[in-house]
Amino acid sequence: MTEDEVWNIIGGVCTNTGTSYGCNGNGEIGSNVILMFQGGELSTFSQIDLE
Length: 51
Fold this sequence. Notes:
There is one protein chain. The protein has one domain. It is α+β, with helices and mostly antiparallel strands. It is globular. It is built from one helix and four strands.
């Protein structure tokens, strides 16, 4: 999945942490996702309690 495709799906504000992006989401308190891209493609993600 390309970076543009990911941002179209998320549609929210994410913070660039330098090596990855952190995005807060709707769901349980503390819900979030961490996204890592390499060469413009999503390479790794980890999500917690997102709806």
